[in-house]
Amino acid sequence: MYWQLIEQAEKYLKSLNTGDNMAEQLKRLLAGLMASGEANADAACRRLKLSRRTLQRRLKAERTSFQEVLQEVRADLAVRYLSDARLKSLEVAMLLGYSNFSSFTTAFKSWYDLPPAKYRERFLRIADF
Fold it and tell me: What domains are there in the chain, each with its CATH number?
């Protein structure tokens, strides 16, 4: 299963724009850190070799924040992971850094206006055609 997750994360990384702005760099980094459970500001700053304050300033200059970028990555990876019928919804929640399924469901609804189970049901039904 680990290799499947790495494959999904790599697909996501390839889909990202290769722009040089800080938000795009952070997205690529967080997608990789997500698989190891280290998708947090401290780990990102260490990898980027930046202080937390410098990262905040650069993201603010791009009119975003660490939390906003993290949520974008989670939203994108959530649909990718849910598209894989081999992964259970609870596993997807844990992979994305949520401590419980309820928090993941709430976040997913805020992004896509439907719960993850309904999304998966629709996606898998469409994929069967």
Answer: 2-128 (1.10.10.60)
